[in-house]
Amino acid sequence: MLAFTGILTLASIMLLIGPINYFQKHLPVPVSLDLASSFSVAKEAVWERPFWGTGPQALVEAISRHRPDSFFSSTIWNLRFIKVGNEWLTLLASLGLGGWLAFIWLIISFIRKIWPAISRATDGDEDFSVRLGIILAWLALTGASFFIPFSLILYFAWWLLFSLALSSVFVWSKNNNPIEIDLLRSRPVLLVTLFSGAIILITLVVVGFFGQRFIRAGLIFFRAQQSIIAQQDAAPILSDMRQAAALNPYEPQYQISLAQGYGAQALLLSGQATPDQTQIQAQTQKVIDSLNEAKKLSVLSAYVYEQEAAVYQSLFSLISNADQLAAEAYANALLIEPNNPLLLLNLGRAKLFEAQVIKKDDSQNSQAAGLVDEAVSSLTRALAIKKDLPIIQLSLSAAYLEKGDYEAAKTNLDQLIAANANDRDARWLLANVYEQQSLFDLALAELEILKAQQPENQTILDKIKEVEGKKMVPAEQ
Fold first, then answer.
1. Which residues pair with 32 in a beta bridge?
2. What crossing angle do the helices spanning 390-403 and 424-436 adopt, rounded to 10°?
3. Has this prediction a pTM greater than 0.85?
4. Domain coverage including residue 50
């Protein structure tokens, strides 16, 4: 029976990870967070819900905030390739202190009873070596959990080995001078444990048979990503993305990537000598449809809304209300993660950009002023949460400049320049502040510093001429 179970388990694992040629694919490198980042994720989760944790899905979302920019957020790849520092930090974050302590109690209670059971099982047990091997394998896997994160397969293997080891100890205790085992005070506990192992085994088989479609979708999608990096032709890339979305219609990342692909096509069409507006509108409509589909698949994912906003921002010249749609997307993301400083930063910048767009129409000046106030509010919140990110303070300075609060803008910019004298963006904004205040000598002083750093920069040279011209006008008057 044990041999049959072992063979079935190996077959299930092979089915789960796919055929042999699956190993020959250029798979992404596993993303393992360092212990400091892993502990930070676990601490955030425990702080939010100390006793019962935030749940596995919330854990994946928390980890995804620390992912590299090049790592795409696909559910099946998240499960297999996003790794916390070790398994116990994963348990602490997803199950809280209550679940974490329960697992410790489970393991310690079982280990305390293993050796007495083994010492009483040496006589008359034909399967002694097999049972001992199962227990040692479980102990090895348990020990490894303190140093490595578990993949989906290792997690299932741990529970399967535990149920088999528990069964072995129960048999030894029953047949050879039974001893009291805390975990086995009643037969239902054993039955539940064995039933859990059977469910896990069945799950492996089911995922193995029916998960091939999703795994294939992941491989095709990865091929498309590699083609993008290699800057290959857009047509086969879009074809691969459509195929991946068709194979796995439940993955929002595929829809987001499709939207990005359609957007790139629309931009290419708009850059032609005689743009075909009908085709451009068709592509932009596909962008909107794909983004809406992604939101349906993952309503509570801030990442999806964040990507939606980024797509709309890239298509500002093609979609009339793209700036407004981007701001709405960031606002929706903040409903899910209200204290995310990067989302607050992006929302503030989107509001500021929207204000600058509609400010061109004099009849909408009041609405533009309201948007600038919203931008200042969002950026102020972001800066309060994360004070060590210069881009937030720089963006807040730009918002103050747009609002006309020059002293507030100057205060922030002076702080940035004091921290980094080579901050060209801060000096450029400060020159604009001085220009708006008609302090042309101070503006020229900042621009001369920039000119010394970048003597060939035509934008800086043109700005110097512009400010010098403004300086001469009142002098002539």
1. 83
2. 10
3. no
4. 1-15+31-169
